Amino acid sequence: MTDTILTSENLSRLPVGPTARRGLGWWGVWCLVTTEGALFVYLLFSYYYFAVQFSRDWLPQGHAPSLKLALPDTIVLLLSSVAMVWADRGVRRGSRAQNIAGIAIAFLLGIVFVVIQYFEWREKSFSPRSHSYGSLYFTITGFHLAHVIAGLVVLLVVLIWSALGYFSPRRSAPLLIASVYWHFVDVVWIFVFATFYLSPYVMW
To answer: Which of 10, 39, 64, 68 has its CB surrounded by the most CB atoms within 10 Å?
Structure first.
């Protein structure tokens, strides 16, 4: 029996991460998405509970909120999801440039979303302490914004890893995990947007 001497050449050939697209991390992120999704369901249920109890008078301005910033913000976030899908297809095709470009675009669009959300908050004439509507609005949108910022950190990490050439068609589980989380953030925003900005037009 001979001992194998590890050199820099054969070390580079050792497997790093799961060869499958869906390793333990993939199941782990789905457990995270499920639990976090349940929290958003509880929070949005609170909104509809108060909305049914108090009707239109519950709205701070007496009418539905403006879509001036919220609608472009929604479009920006949806486009970031499209960019992540494009990035994921790039790594599966073996196109490193497409992979890096897709993640970079998604990251930049995520930053744009955060900036627009900041200006949206500044335009509000109420605060979290003003009334129950204000408390729910800032709690839910703030909770979502925290998830967006966490997602941006994840995107930045996989962007660096992509630039370093860590991913290939055989090994891209971290990118898939990041994509699942980012798509979750986008889907949640669709429900938040529909709740605060669209439902008042339908309900009243």
So the answer is: 64
